[in-house]
Write a structure and sequence with these properties.
globular, alpha/beta, 5 strands, five-stranded parallel sheet, about 45% helix
């Protein structure tokens, strides 16, 4: 089920977590923000030691990820498994890894929140894994913003921080920082 960044964030803020999130695309800002929100807010700090696993794609493989995801939470409502840089996971696009992921997607552990942060790439939605992720997971395709989309986004971002920006300052930000939302957000937060 493909959704927008705002939809996912509002569900998370309402404490509505799905069993699987697949966050992909060129615009890493949205992927990072959702991943960070889940990492920081899915459970109390005191429960994270036993119930939250954060892995990086280079250091993980599909069996390890799914082994963590199939486990039960210890004295908590849920278990959280986050795979950052998921595009680097060994075997994610290989037949064996694809079969294991497909099997898990059809019957995910309901008490686990499994997050794939698949940055700078996209799954081919014509293949089985791409179709299954789009159907069974909360699926975000974070496309790169076009230059004409930046000013309204910057203005709403500044507004979300409780500030105002005039058009000259807005244009200065967009012209000098470019099309990198993460960098724009960092520079605005510095101000």
């Amino acid at each position: 089920m493909a959704v927008t960044y705002q939809d996912i964030l509002s569900n998370l803020k309402a404490n509505q977590y799905a069993p699987v999130y697949f966050l992909q695309g060129e615009e890493s800002y949205f992927i990072d923000e959702i991943t960070k929100y889940i990492e920081q807010n899915a459970m109390e700090e005191s429960l994270k030691g036993f119930n939250q696993v954060v892995m990086y794609g280079k250091d993980a493989d599909i069996p390890t990820i799914l082994n963590h995801a199939k486990g039960f939470p210890m004295m908590a409502e849920r278990k959280v498994v986050i795979v950052k840089e998921a595009q680097e996971v060994a075997g994610i696009s290989k037949e064996q890894g694809e079969k294991m992921l497909l099997s898990y997607l059809e019957n995910p552990q309901p008490s686990t929140v499994l997050v794939f942060a698949y940055k700078y790439k996209v799954l081919d939605k014509r293949k089985k894994l791409g179709k299954a992720m789009a159907k069974h997971a909360v699926f975000l395709n974070a496309a790169k913003f076009y230059d004409n989309q930046l000013p309204p986004w910057v203005e709403s971002f500044v507004k979300s921080r409780g500030k105002k920006v005039d058009q000259k300052a807005l244009q200065l930000i967009v012209d000098n920082i470019g099309n990198n939302l993460t960098r724009i957000a960092n520079e605005i937060d510095k101000m």
